[in-house]
Amino acid sequence: MTEVSVQVVSELVRAAGRGERQAEELLCQRFAPVVRAFARRRLRGRDAVEEFAQDALLLMIEALRQARVEQPERMGGFVLGICRTLAFDRARQRERRQALWHSYGHALQSVMVEAAEREPYEVAHLEDCLSQLSKRARDLLRLGYVEARAHEEVAAALEISPANARVMRHRTLASLRDCMSQRMSWEVA
Amino acid sequence: MSRPRAPFEALDAYQSGLMPDAEATQLEEELFAAAAAGADDEARLVDLLARLGQFLLPRGGWDIGSTRARVDELVAAGLRVQVLSALAGAPGEPLLLPKIDDDAQLVVTHVPIDVRGYDSVDVVVEKLDGTELKTFRDIGFEPSDGTVYALCEAPLARIAAKQRHVRSRILGMRGGRQHVVAVFETRQD
Fold it and tell me: Scanning A31, B120, B164, B168, which has the fewest C-beta atoms within 10 Å of its C-beta?
């Protein structure tokens, strides 16, 4: 999987406050997955999830540049606060988004779907691992995580109960994690 | 994320909305703290799957074994698709696969063997000494003639091509029994 910087978050926050763009990027990479998880709980459809994630991260960058993070060591709570505030006020956000995107949009390049083109090894690794799963397991992941279909919809498409779909999803994700944590067989053999 | 639930179970219950709000609130605190520490492995994997999976979807990356029509669609979409057709070598010699073009984005290896008539088909690729490299599970095929258009991203094809001389075994399952459909060797130029 993508390497996450082991740098302490408070150092990254301070560096970002000093205007270091790489620190901003690392913070985006660090928080993007959980921000999307937060959004997936509340929103349906990948576009809605992605829009929420971008908004939250844009606000995080804005706060960093304006040195509004008072306790850098509690950055996780700070970002969570951003997410919760956003979730309570979606209507006002839409208008603000356009202005934010215009001002800070370039800073999100590394965490967007389009960035996949610049991650050929990660894409190859995922594709290699997917091909080792059964068709049913692949369909389950595609419907649930790529097409962002509702839980019951995925189960119905696979003609299994929602409970079975859940168990299968946990097992499939665990298998995928095992595969992704190793080098590709083509490389090590 | 130190919760009593299994690693992916908590995240899944959270994202799907099945987790009660009180528990979700607590999990959010843990998730964001874990992200700050670079320890949100489950959220990171799910995010990678969703993000790179979206990238792969319109490029045929979820088709493990494709069709001629699908290959034509990808070409029509403007992707640089290289179709490799194995050339027969001397009697007893492996089939020869042409070199992968430097500018190819997708590589399709056409396997002209009819795999119709089975409940499922796997392809096991191994080194000549029998060491298994990889099993492609539940592959798809061209319905009109049963041949296989094995499609993948070019970076993955280039990595796999490092194993220059391999043996492939096509295995079909029918009525609960496994049948050897074909065994052949290929050598990459």
Answer: B164
Q: Where are the domains of chain B?
A: 7-56, 61-188
d(CA A115, CA B55): 9
Closest Cβ opposite residue B52 in set A41, A79, A116: A116
Q: Do A33 and B159 touch (CB under 8 A)?
A: no
Choice among A25-39, A107-121, A137-151, B112-126 with the minimum mean pLDDT:
A107-121
Asked whether residue A4 is assigned to any structural domain, the reply reads no
Q: How far apart are CA B47 and CA B49, in angstroms?
A: 5
| Cβ-defined contact of A146 to B53 (cutoff 8 Å) | yes
Tell me the chain A residues in contact with residue B18 when contact means C-beta distances shorter than 8 Å.
Answer: 151
Mind giving me the DSSP string for chain B?
A: ---SS-HHHHHHHHHHT-S-HHHHHHHHHHHHHHHHTT--HHHHHHHHHHHHHHHHGGGTTT-SSB-HHHHHHHHHTT--EEEEEPBP-STTSPEEEPPPPTT-SEEEEEE----TT-SEEEEEEE-TTS-EEEEE-S----TTT--EEEEEEHHHHHHHTTS-EEEEEEEEEETTEEEEEEEEEEEE-
Query: Domain limits at A140?
Result: 119-188
Strand order in the sheet with B106-111: B81-85, B106-111, B148-153
Query: Is residue A129 included in any domain, yes or no?
Result: yes
Residue after which a domain boundary falls, among A76, A94, A115: A115
The partner residue sitting opposite A130, judged by closest CB among B41, B46, B62, is: B62
pTM over 0.80: no
Same domain, residue pair A98 and A84: yes
CATH classification (class only), B61-188: mainly beta
Interface test with B, best of A113, A123, A143, A171 (most B CBs within 10 A): A123
Cβ within 8 Å, pair B38-A135: no
Tally A–B CB contacts below 8 A: 200
- Which pLDDT value is given to residue B87? 73
- pLDDT tens for residues A23-55? 999 999 999 999 999 999 888 778 888 999 999
